[in-house]
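Technical note accompanying the year-one report. For the benefit of new consortium partners, we illustrate the data format agreed upon in the data management plan: each record pairs a sequence with a structure-token string. No post-processing was applied to the example shown here.
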Amino acid sequence: KYHHQATDFVIELTETVLLSQSGREQMVLNSLRYLGFKVALDDFGTGYSSLNYIHNYPIDSIKIDATFVRNMLSNTTSEQVVLLIAQLAQLLEVDLIAEGVEDDRALQKLIEMGCHHIQGYFYSRPHNVDELIGIINEKQMKSA
């Protein structure tokens, strides 16, 4: 009906999903990636062992937790954490997504750090499925 490919979707996981270490998670993630889905590790840096997860699981992108992003302009430690995560993403060749972007100053700082994907109120508030379909349809009609 909507003509989407698996490559159009990103499966977001929090670190707690990966805590069981049963091996099943890795098998499922490998299967999803084989089908073309992308996998993102959400709230990176807030959990028990983030580095272990990006080392042991097939991750395509990491999402910087909104707490770090919101505080980075007023807190040097948060700014350094965001910069470190941005550098790590670049070295690992994974996409980087910043959550909690609420203003242009934060956006510009993130761009300087090499982050080009954002989520947050600066771009849009969260929408339910029906609202999102309406927005997509409206944009498609305008571009036609």
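Partners are asked to follow this layout when depositing records. The mean pLDDT is 87.
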